[in-house]
Amino acid sequence: MSATPGTHMKDEIEQQPAVFADLLAAREQFTQVAAAVAERRPRFALLAARGSSDHAALYAKYLIEVLLELPVGLTSPSTTTLYGARPDLTDVLLVTVSQSGGSPDLVAVTEAGRARGALTVAVTNTADSPLASVAELSLDIRAGAERAVAATKTYSATLLALYLLIDAIRGGDGAHARALPDLAATALDEARDPVEEAVQRYRFAGRLVTAGRGYSLATAHEAALKLAETSYLSARSYSGADLLHGPVAAVDSETAVLAVCSAGLGGESTREVIEAVHQRGADICAIGSAASKTPAAQRIPLPETAEEVAPILEILPAQQLALGLALARGIDPDNPRGLQKITKTT
Fold it and tell me: Which residues form the SIS domain (predicted)?
């Protein structure tokens, strides 16, 4: 427990540029695992994860479908652990994402998948974890110990690790990721003032909706989780397209909307969503490299990157916002009520 509320979360947010640099320096592990995957020529990919890692897996789903053009599914661990399903996974790539590597259901899914023919890859921050031991291949995200309950650096490091793996499978050299350490440092520094303005604007908000499309949908989901678990804010996340298919009816002048809007096809589509909720009187905060092109009342701009790596930067000001709102509401985000660092579901 930190002496000053939020100390661990603040420190771990600030560590992210260095974590990115270290991970990029260790890119060889990704090329080795990627070569093994490419040699097996999987016909399908499955992703298994929980919590923040589930949002990272969603990001990987977009990467695999777009960059590798493979069909991808997100597993339901309970079909294995509760119902005993054992589908034939011959020629399937199963990637299990878990920062701790200690969730029993994810270990069970990976073990069962390997037994049924899948090529299993564990992506974890704990190289000697049970998950890493049961997977055929494993990747260390190298984020170091994370003391705050809310995942920050382990989440963004997982995103970068998944990008480096998938990019290497397609034969890439990680070029789009090389500038991320410097860009992350710039993003964290330049976001401080607009994030503080957003904290003052939304510190008494009762409900908030987050939205994004494409790669940025993962950011919208993770931002809502961070706000809920650290600030106890009632936050719901939607694909921008799904938001317009019904939930938009509940959006009005009493609703705060956090829209993730970066340069690229997903951001262009999200701007249409922002226009729609703006017309309904919503109080909008836009995060991303295309935030300045929106009618949002509050904007948190970010450096522009290739769209496929934008979520690695997008989450940074969302983490700062979650930290700031928690402290403004008198909450210690290092010790949110009812939560532990490792959640062991079965």
Answer: 33-175, 198-336
Task: State the residue for tokens 């410097």.
Answer: 182
Q: Which residues of the chain have pLDDT under 70?
A: 1-2, 337-346
Apex 58 CA angle, 346 and 133, nearest 5: 45
The span from the CA of 2 to the CA of 334, in Å, is 7
What is the residue type of 87? Answer: P
* Same domain (yes/no): 76, 131: yes
What is the amino acid identity at position 61? K
Q: Two tokens at 199? A: 């904290």
CB-based contacts of 54: which residues, under 8 Å, 6+ apart?
74, 97, 221
Tally of structural domains, the chain: 2
Q: Which residue range is the domain that position 269 belongs to? A: 183-328
- List, in sequence order, every residue forming a beta bridge with 123; answer none if it has no partner: 97, 139
Distance of CA 345 to the CA centre of its chain: 20
**Domain shared by 72 and 127, yes or no:** yes
CA–CA distance from 262 to each of 26, 46, 143, 270, 334 (Å)?
28, 27, 25, 9, 29
Threshold 0.90, pTM exceeds: yes
Bridge partners (DSSP) of residue 284 are 257
Strands (E), the chain: 44-49, 72-74, 92-98, 119-124, 137-140, 207-212, 234-239, 256-260, 283-288, 298-301
Task: Tell me whether residue 259 is in a domain.
Answer: yes
Q: What pLDDT digit, counting tens, does each position of 99-137 carry?
A: 999 999 999 999 999 999 999 999 999 999 999 999 999
The Cα 256–Cα 252 span in angstroms is: 9
- Considering the domain boundaries, does residue 38 fall inside one? yes
